[in-house]
Amino acid sequence: MIRSVIAGTGGYLPARSLSNDELAAEYNLDTSDAWISERTGIRRRHMAAPGETTADMGAAACREALARAGADASEVDAIILATATPDSAFPSTATRVQEKLGIRQGFSFDISAACTGFIYALGVADSMIRTGACRSALVVGAEAFTRILDWSDRGTCVLFGDGAGAVLLRATEVAGEGTDSGILSTHLHSDGRHGDILQVEGGLVRMAGREVFRHAVSKLASAVDEALKANGLDQTDVQWLVPHQANARIIDAMGRKLGLPPERVVVTVDRHANTSAASIPLALADATRDGRIGAGDLVLMEAIGGGLTWGAALARF
Ligand code: COA
Questions:
Q1: Atom 1 of ligand 1 has which residue's CA nearest to it?
Q2: Where does the record place the Beta-ketoacyl-[acyl-carrier-protein] synthase III N-terminal domain (predicted)?
Q3: CATH code of the domain made up of 2-173
């Protein structure tokens, strides 16, 4: 049987990084480092340079994923890119990344599932690899989120940042069902009734923060339970939690639910803020680059975002 194995991870952050105080001064915000960091865990965020596109960031993340997999762009036959901040409605950001990487074969397309986008993209790519529709896929989350923020709304503009992350998935023949490597399963959900609590309206992000918070922990907990159950696993089997990085309080709650010590939860929200679809692959890149996550480790990913959309994925590295 065929499994999608994560062959390499990559991440890219724009050069410019602003602390909470620097952001408040630059945008004349009535806020404080204490308010932001106590409620969210966010201390800094990166911001794309003028003219730096979502595709530029996505391509940079893909280059690192390919290099770390020892792969050449010529082996890639799909690019599936999740973003809420595409460079244009079309061509898709994925095809722009394809062009930047010099890839001439295969297909590429974008996925829209807001902050859950990477889990959705992983689910689609894994399904396509398992059915033989492609042999290898770059799965990308890339966002220029600071371009859709309302700088007069202190309740949202302090929460987000820019960046991109990517993984290279490779079709790998494994002996049989019991063989435990690659993407084990993905679990995708949405409920459009709650679309208005986190949305882009008139080109800018609008969020009912408390409402989103209320949905987050229960929906993430049920997606995580579903993923473990589907694989006959227990929470004690999970070695790493790589959550969507929206808010340290939500991340801590999920770590506690799984009984994981804090050092087994990958956290980047302090340095990156919420980079939407990019946050999980950026966190994966962080924790594989420094050797925390290594071969054989069982990694649980989960995310929730506008839609509402939410989901979870289990992978053995
Ligand atoms: N600095 C200072 N004060 C702020 C502020 C800021 N950046 N943003 C909001 N406030 C104020 C509000 O104006 C309000 O003041 P008031 O009581 O005088 O009206 C007060 O803080 C409380 O606002 P509220 O929005 O109720 O705060 P909260 O405790 O719910 O915290 C969030 C706000 C956004 C941090 C919190 O709701 C949250 O984390 N939600 C989840 C968001 C999320 O994860 N979204 C992404 C999902 S992908």
A1: 31
A2: 109-192
A3: 3.40.47.10
